[in-house]
Write a structure and sequence with these properties.
Layout lengths: L2 E5 L3 H12 L3 E5 L20 E2 L3 H6 L9 H6 L2 H10 L4 E3 L4 E4 L4 H14 L3 E3 L4 E7 L2 E7 L4 E3 L2 E4 L14 H8 L4 E7 L3 E2 L3 H5 L4 E11 L2 E12 L3 E3 L1 H15 L5 E6 L6 H14 L18 H7 L13 H12 L1 E5 L1 E2 L7 E6 L17 E3 L13 H19 L2
Parallel strand pairs: 1-2, 1-10, 2-6, 10-20
Antiparallel strand pairs: 3-5, 4-5, 7-8, 8-9, 11-19, 12-15, 12-18, 13-14, 13-16, 14-15, 16-17
């Protein structure tokens, strides 16, 4: 009988274990934390954004970090398959805005418990508090693992699913990169992906907690737009965050790495309105508030906390009488509403990113089996690979699919 050892009990590891069990192999998940699925618990703000209810082509499109590598895996184990697996085992799901799929209960723990239950019920074994130091080779093949306590566990195949280097408190501390590198694998330099951005200016701190909906944010370098996203964002004590900022962060990280500074975030606060239409709208609002000061005349247009900052950026003053505004001053105000610019100085640390960009080079991994091309008997899946995507369930689906395929093929390896 095949004996499959899986290093790491996250999304990819649990699915690798389940598919290995389904092939009749003896399967052991070796997890260094006290419990499996720690990082799953914090996804989707604690609700677990399981996957996205879109086509495989759209899944790939939303994995800008080598999504095409996942084509075969998505065909083998799709978003519908993970949903069906969970629902067949008693966990109902729901689809929300943007195709995001969540457990009906809104509790990430229910997803972890269900996957863990499936793995154990199908014959798997979990060893927790077992940090793995390295992968054991015999005659050039993966033949087991060496734990930090010097215990050796033998197997016929090893699946590396240790995750990335983000949220180290969940166990994702980059161990897998070290193990793979020791065996000759190339590690594509790690970068934060889906990470907040830092802004040094005081007015950003004044806006802390302000969420903006239906805005367009663009990364601008030397008057050239590098990338744009439409949706929601949030001002924080250190800068900006929220869905569209996270989606822009990989481009920002690459720009900073390439020395493209200063880099600005330009926010169109009213993207649905052209400059001309917005000007007409502002003039109507001003007519209704003709005897008021500017600071009190934009309440219908902007959140209260944002009004002073917009006025300041337009080089105006809050006590300016609305009926005294010139056409040129109103033009400056409109321009600010369409281009509210925030200087960026960098990303938050890699440890605070939702996803790690970079990882084990895909040139050294078979996309159909997720087997190492360098070490027979070694398989790899999940965030440890150089695959990453946008927020919305795409990264978890990549982990589920690659894990399932890796486990299935590890069980069949002889």
């Amino acid at each position: 009988m095949s004996k499959v050892l899986i290093i790491g009990g996250g999304a990819a590891g649990l699915l690798a274990g389940i598919s290995s069990n389904q092939q009749g192999a003896e399967t052991i998940i070796i997890e260094k934390m006290p419990k499996v699925g720690r990082k799953l618990l914090i996804t989707g703000k604690g609700r677990c954004n399981i996957t996205n209810a879109c086509t495989n082509q759209e899944l790939i499109k939303n994995l800008p970090g080598n999504g095409k590598f996942m084509y075969s895996a998505f065909s083998k184990f799709s978003n519908n398959d993970i949903i069906q697996l969970l629902e067949n085992n008693g966990l109902k799901t729901k689809v929300e805005r943007g195709g995001r799929v969540f457990p009906l209960s809104d509790h990430a723990m229910d997803v972890v418990d269900t996957l863990r239950h499936i793995f154990l019920e199908t014959g798997g074994k979990i060893l927790t508090k077992h940090p793995v130091k390295s992968i054991l080779l015999k005659d050039g093949k993966a033949a087991g693992v060496i734990c930090e306590n010097k215990e050796i566990i033998y197997g016929t195949a090893v699946v590396l699913t240790t995750g990335g280097a983000t949220y180290p408190g969940t166990g994702s501390t980059g161990d897998g990169y070290k193990m793979a590198k020791e065996l000759g694998h190339t590690i594509v330099p790690l970068e934060p992906s889906l990470v907040p951005l830092e802004c040094p200016v005081d007015y950003v701190k004044h806006l802390q907690g302000l969420a903006l909906k239906n805005v367009t944010a663009s990364l601008v370098y030397k008057d050239k737009v590098l990338a744009s996203e439409f949706g929601e964002m949030l001002f924080t004590h250190f800068g900006v965050s929220g869905p569209i900022i996270l989606s822009l962060s990989k481009t920002a990280a690459k720009a900073f790495k390439a020395g493209k500074t200063p880099l600005d975030l330009s926010i169109d606060l009213k993207p649905a309105l052209s400059t001309e239409v917005l000007d007409a709208r502002v003039q109507r609002d001003f007519q209704d508030n003709i005897r008021k000061q500017l600071g009190n005349g934009l309440n219908k247009l902007l959140p209260k906390s944002l009004i002073p900052e917009v006025i300041d950026k337009a080089c105006l003053t809050a006590d300016r009488e609305i009926d005294q505004l010139t056409k040129e001053e109103r033009s400056r105000l409109i321009n600010t509403l369409k281009h509210f610019t925030v200087p960026l100085t960098g990303t938050r640390p890699l440890a605070e990113a939702i996803v790690t960009a970079g990882g084990i080079s895909l040139k050294e991994v078979d996309p159909k089996t997720f087997a190492s091309k360098l070490v027979p008997g070694l398989f790899m899946a999940g965030e440890v690979l150089d695959v990453d995507g946008y927020t919305g369930g795409y990264n978890l689906q990549a982990a589920f699919s690659s894990g399932f395929v890796a486990g299935e093929n590890a069980a069949a390896y002889k």
